[in-house]
Each structure stands twice: as C-alpha cells, then as structure tokens.
Design brief:
There is one protein chain. By secondary structure, the chain is α/β, with parallel strands linked by helices. The chain folds into 2 domains: 9-149 and 217-259, Vaccinia Virus protein VP39 (Rossmann fold, 3-Layer(aba) Sandwich); 159-213, S-adenosyl-L-methionine-dependent methyltransferases. The protein contains 6 helices and 11 strands. The protein has helices spanning 9-15, 22-37, 54-61, 73-82, 122-133, 218-228, and strands at 44-48, 65-70, 89-93, 106-111, 136-147, 159-168, 171-180, 190-199, 204-213, 231-238, 252-259. The strands form 2 sheets. The chain has a 7-stranded mixed sheet, with helices on both faces. It has a 4-stranded antiparallel sheet with strand order 6-7-8-9. The N and C termini lie far apart (43 Å). The mean pLDDT is 91.
C-alpha cells in the first residue's frame, strides 16, 4: 500500500505551504466572523476534516470546547498527543460524508485548509452538509474555507505542474506535483497528484496522494446549501478580510452558512 503525506503531519503542513502565523490568523478571523453573525457566544465548535486540529487547539486554549473529526488515524493521533492535558478537546475518526457523533449540538463549525472541493459529487456534498447540520443548533454558523481555483489549467493529458525541495527538521523532502486530465462531463475540475520523496537520515519514504477538485463558487455553494434544506449562505469573505469584495479575491474565500 502506498504511503500518504497525511501520515506525516509536520511535513504535510510544510508541503502545503502553510506559513508561520497562518493558523492563528485564520482562528482570529473565524472569531471576527462569529462576532459579526452570531448574537450568542461560541462555546462549542466542530472542526471538520480537522487533521490534528491546530485551529481547535488554539480555540481550546481560549476556553472553547472543540471536537475534531477526520478520517486519518495518524492525524487524529497527532492531535490527541499535541492536545494532551488540554481541557475541552476531543477527536473522532470519521469520514466527512454521512457521519454521526453522539455529542450535544454545536454553536459553530468550520472546515478550513481549502479542502472542501475534494467532495466531487452532488450526493457527497449534500450528505456532508446534512451531517454537519444535524450537529448544529438552529442559527449556528458553518464556515467553509475554499481555494480560488480559476488558476487551475484544464489539461487534455497528464502534465507536471510543480517541483521543489524543502527541509523539515532532519528530513529532506522532494515534492513533485501533477495535473491529470478529467472527462469534460465530470463534476471534477481537475485531479491534483502529489508525490513526495522524504529522505530521513535512516530511510527514504515515498508518498503519493491524489486530490480531486470540484470548482466551488459562491453561487454553487449557495445552491447546494439550499438543496440540502438546512443551510443558507449568508456571507462570503475574501482573503481573511471583512472588507475586501469577493470580486477582488486573490487566493481564497470563506463561505458563511447559517443553520436554519
């Protein structure tokens, strides 16, 4: 079985170009969005596709109770180890579609890291929204971080996209990325393939991950929320700003859905 970059949380974050202070900036912005759109304080939060939940760990240190859900046992193990001794932090191993938790309802939920577009079928998206809605109080917010994807070039055949090398601790990581062609009728805008050769001092590990991407726009997410019947899209914010217009979005936008 091929290894996945998600088995190496610290390396994964560097490979995906996480910048110093980025997680804290995202948490600060979530709090600003909650303050703008919620009349009551946020005390319980669901972190969807949490990984090791660096956002949740920051929130838990501020006294908010956080539950993270992720399908990766490695990421969850890392999150549990990192949050040991931190009150109000729990993790569950779940898929992000058709999942349930035996938890009291949450005041807010968030899906960060720009990975929402990996759900590529209508059934997956509606199942996901329904699963999250069932865990939220009425009026609660679901914030979804979405990458601006119009820069992805459609290809007719596989094409190398990017190659770079970086150091993470005592490991040297050689990264190669590819775009793969998709049928015109597919809901998938592209498939991003990531190959990493991780050279540890005592061994070399090769990881391969395939990440399908469905082009997600404010209008299509609004339609999905309405089709689900339990959400309404109430706002969209560009690049962690409350004032930048969506049409001037540079890299990413945050959808704000309200549970109805």
């Amino acid at each position: 079985m091929e290894r996945s970059i998600y088995e190496f949380p610290a390396i994964f974050r560097r490979v995906h170009k996480e910048k110093p202070g980025e997680i804290q900036a995202e948490v600060d912005f979530l709090k600003r969005v909650w303050a703008r759109h919620l009349e009551r304080p946020v005390r319980r939060v669901l972190d969807v596709a949490s990984g090791n939940s660096p956002h949740g760990q920051i929130l838990a240190r501020d006294g908010i109770r956080v539950v993270g859900v992720d399908r990766s046992s490695t990421m969850i193990a890392a999150g549990r180890a990192e949050s040991r001794g931190l009150d109000g932090m729990r993790f569950y191993r779940r898929e992000i579609v058709n999942f349930r938790l035996h938890e009291r309802r949450f005041d807010a939920a968030f899906f960060m890291s720009e990975t929402f577009p990996v759900m590529t079928t209508n059934d997956e998206i509606l199942s996901h929204l329904g699963s999250v809605a069932n865990l939220l109080r009425r009026g609660a917010l679901y914030c979804i971080d979405v990458d601006r994807q119009d820069g992805i070039r459609l290809v007719r055949s596989g094409r190398a996209w990017r190659k770079r090398t970086l150091a993470v601790g005592d490991a040297r990581v050689e990264v190669r990325a590819f775009n793969r062609a998709m049928p015109w009728y597919s809901g998938v805008h592209s498939t991003f393939e990531l190959e990493c050769r991780i050279r540890f001092p005592d061994r070399t590990v090769i990881t391969r991950d395939s990440v399908p991407t469905r082009y997600t726009l404010p209008c299509t997410l609004d339609l999905a929320a309405r089709a689900c019947g339990q959400f309404r899209l109430i706002a969209g914010y560009a690049d962690l700003s409350l004032s930048i217009p969506l049409e001037k979005c540079d890299r990413r936008w945050l959808a704000v859905l309200r549970r109805v």
